[in-house]
Design goal:
CATH class: Alpha Beta
CATH topology: Rossmann fold
Strand content: 5-15%
CATH superfamily: PrpR receptor domain-like
Helix content: 40-55%
Order of helices and strands: EEHEHHEHHEHEHEHEHHHH
Structural class: alpha/beta
């Protein structure tokens, strides 16, 4: 899908899709066997992209870039762009599983720790009756194992691949092996397997609507998340303000 909306933040195009729009893109890609690499944008990732050229290149090469974080939606609107709303990665993943279970789509789950990925597969089968899990693998591997993993995914015949690893590792893997794996739809899902497996709880809906889901996650794992959320969100706000005031070059790329 070509981004013709003109919506960008820090020079990164954002596709203004609803959840239904995104699901239609996925369905069309599976049916036509065309490549659809989906990336998600949140405040922390956009900040990191400023100093990580590999991450930036990988995100920009994606076919769809969706606003996963409410802060990205607000930032775009503050800069004068009409972005309809967020499409949370975990919600899109769950909806893809629900819809795909009824259509016979084959899923491959890749990432997280072994106990988490096993529990995720178990929960997916419980929640989405009839879902076809073509394969799964944890997210711990050496560079020497990468090609073998890509071949394993290719040989599974998967229609949809979910990659649950940290950035920029997942974006780089997706870009590097997309053609080799031959999976029509590839989507990075971050910590979504932890949620599916029940390891991490999602924020109540009222906090999600207030854009405070990140804070709920921070309270669950403050030692690990403080830098990503508190420092990252602060830098994101400063970058948005600089763009609004016209004293930065990031939006002129």
């Amino acid at each position: 899908m070509n981004n013709e909306s003109g919506i960008t933040i820090f020079g990164v195009p954002v596709d203004p899709l609803s959840m239904d729009d995104a699901l239609k893109e996925v369905d069309d890609a599976v049916k036509s066997r065309r490549n659809l690499n989906i990336a998600f944008l949140n405040a922390g990732k956009l900040v990191a992209m400023e100093n990580d050229s590999l991450l930036r290149e990988s995100v920009l090469s994606a076919d769809l870039r969706l606003a996963d974080g409410q802060s990205v939606v607000w930032g775009c609107r503050f800069l004068g762009h009409k972005l309809p709303g967020r499409v949370a990665g975990v919600d899109l993943m769950m909806n893809m599983m629900k819809a795909g279970a009824g259509k016979g789509y084959r899923f491959f789950l890749f990432g997280a720790r072994q106990e988490v990925i096993e529990k995720s597969v178990e929960e997916a089968k419980r929640k989405f009756g009839g879902i076809n899990i073509a394969g799964f693998r944890n997210g711990y591997f050496s560079e020497a194992e990468e090609e073998g993993i890509a071949d394993e995914i290719r040989d599974s015949g998967a229609d949809i691949l979910f990659v649950a690893m940290s950035s920029p590792k997942k974006e780089i893997f997706q870009k590097k092996y997309q053609e080799r794996m031959g999976v029509p739809v590839i989507m990075g899902v971050g910590g979504s397997f932890d949620i599916l497996a029940g390891k991490t709880k999602r924020a109540p809906m009222f906090l999600q609507r207030l854009g405070l889901e990140w804070f709920y996650r921070f309270l669950q794992e403050p030692g690990r998340m403080w830098k990503r959320y508190l420092a990252g969100n602060t830098l994101f706000i400063l970058m948005v303000l600089r763009c609004r005031l016209g004293i930065c070059n990031c939006c002129k790329r």
